[in-house]
Amino acid sequence: MSRGRTHQDGSAGDVDYAAHGVGYADLRRADPRIAAAVDAALGDARTVLNVGAGAGSYEPRDRAVTAVEPSATMRAQRPAGLVPAIDATAESLPFDDRTFDAAMTTFSVHQWGDLAAGLREVRRVTRGPVVVLTCDPALLERFWLAAYAPEVIATEARRYPAPESIGALLGGDAVVRGVPVPLDCTDGFGEAYYGRPERLLEPEVRAAMSAWSFVDDAVHARFVRDLGDDLASGAWDARHGHLRTQPTFDGSLVLVVAG
User: Fold this and answer.
1) Number of helices and strands in the chain (H, E)
2) Is 173 exposed, middle or buried (0-12, 13-18, 19+ CB in 10 A)?
3) What's residue 8's pLDDT?
4) Cα(28)–Cα(242) distance, rounded to whole angstroms?
């Protein structure tokens, strides 16, 4: 069952972006190397639907994009150079069958109220490839955060659908491709800081990751204390210091591409 629009700003998923989405555009800026992977997966599509478009990360600038975003908070953060987003949900797209050459969604499917219904709708309105940038829950424990905030990793593992399930729901010749995370990644999701642990001590950085909104203040406090102590003592660097110069991290980030 779809949860419908359950939050004050119209957010339709499990996160209230009126409370947790402010400042998102500043910290969740599209990384150009990840963007290149998304762009390549879209092929030669001229018209692209972006579902759960948020503040516009990863929307191509050289194609005709139609953006859909139910959260008023997120729509308000879209830069002036992007098309305004339509107020709608993935589960009920206001478009005719096969309207778009391609469709995309980034860091969004785990927040939809009804994943199967949403993917059916995206497939219905799209002639060509559907590109989903998401995380594989089976790979989340590769990230050292699992040792410091297992509750956050467990929350993400419950929320993210398996990539194979996404592909099966979309049908066609779906493939799953790993996407390396760059050391200086500009998109502030969790693994973006694999080699910059100090940044995760900043409350505003954690606030830009929806998973942290599901754990209580005690988890935040314990995480800041434990990671801060290990950074001060050198214990974190003894275990993970090589990550500070490792160019990329093969974590849970994947692309699901369904032709």
Assistant:
1) 11, 8
2) exposed
3) 57
4) 25
> Percent helix, strand and coil across the chain, each rounded to 5?
40, 15, 40
Low-confidence ranges of the chain (pLDDT < 50): 1-5, 7, 9-11, 17-21
28 secondary structure, DSSP code: B
Structure tokens at 152: 């956050």
Q: Residue 21, Cα to own-chain centre: how many angstroms?
A: 13
Which residue, 196, 198, 200, is CA-closest to 244? 196
Q: Which two tokens stand for residue 62?
A: 């050289």
In angstroms, the CA 192 to CA 200 distance is: 10
Q: Are 74 and 54 in contact (CB under 8 A)?
A: yes
Task: Decide if 258 contacts 208 (C-beta within 8 A).
Answer: no
C-alpha 151: how far from its chain's center?
A: 18
Token output for 56: 């516009």
17's CB contacts (< 8 A; 6+ apart) are 7, 9, 11, 24, 71, 73, 74
Angle, alpha carbons 61-19-202 (nearest 5°): 80
Encoded amino acid at 64, one letter: A
Distance of CA 146 to the CA centre of its chain: 18
Distance CA 75, CA 85 (A): 6
Look at residue 73 in the predicted model and tell me its pLDDT: 87
- Total residues belonging to the chain: 259
In the DSSP assignment, the letter for residue 133 is E
**What pLDDT, on a 0 to 100 scale, did the predictor assign at position 241?**
98
